[in-house]
Design brief:
189 residues; mainly beta; 2 helices; elongated
Amino acid sequence: MESTDNQIIVLGRDPVPSVIHLEAGESLRMTLLVPEGVSCSHCLEIHLDGPGASLDLAGAWRCTSSENVRLQVIVRHNVPGCTSEQLFKGVVGGSARAEFGGLVYVAPGAMKTVAHQQAHSLLLSPDAFCEARPQLEIYADDVVCSHGATTGYLNPEELFYMRSRGIPEEEARAMQVEAFLAPVLNRMP
């Protein structure tokens, strides 16, 4: 695989590879999307097998009814000098369920690895459920790795501010959701 522009994959519609290998100097920029109304379960594994390989992976899902979305991402840094950036954002409402599991694995000897993984979720109803399980498994020294996850609700103070400026409540909520998903959706052409 050579350097690529942003590959956009719509889960539930497009064929999705389950394993990708990046060799020396190759880079991949990929965006995964789960549209509203789609339930799916997918596991994606990416191996950085050559020095200088890089990955820029993002994903977003929007579940507002009774969807069930499950996404597992495994990124394996198998050699020194590779980088990976991951950002996942989800909006879950109604009685929908969303689960994200992420693993960044750094093999023994894979020095100078730089890897970051983030998963953030926004709940729109009390019956919505979201779980994020980011993990790091590091067997090398001299690496820079981080992971994090957040789950929360719309900010009531921001909603109040927008309403006090004449924005109807539904529009204000829609604007907050759009702003939350923007870092991933702005990757779209």
